[in-house]
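Question:
Write out your own:
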Amino acid sequence: MDGLRNERLTIFIATPITKKLGKPPEIARLRLLVDTIDAAAHAEGARTVCAFREEGWKGEENPAIFVPRDYRWCKECDGAVVFPEDSYGVRVELGWLSALKKPVLRLHDGEIRHQTGLERFIGHVCTVFDHPIADMSDLGEAVSGFIKSIRK
């Protein structure tokens, strides 16, 4: 293995935030999602960064703080796990990630549905793996496989 493969990978986790605030069951589900991704990443020797977690599961209200931070994370990460749902912010981050040619594991509730042609064909710009999460039973395995693909 070369030196780069021995370095600890960083995985950026992007989740919707704004529309989840004030909805405890949805916050709990996102926390479980992030915790599952984090555990799988750590088991693979990677570290994670996640705005929602860093913000205490409350969301940062100041774009002057979160926009530069999240863009920096996109630039510095080795790959990202994104859960777009109907979040404009996650879609912006997906745009940054694709422009930076970062590999992405894109999670979907149930059936994979792309709202736009951009979402459907973003895999022509960067590597995108789509994974439905009807339940979270296989999410850890999907994250593990994604991280292993980054290392290849």
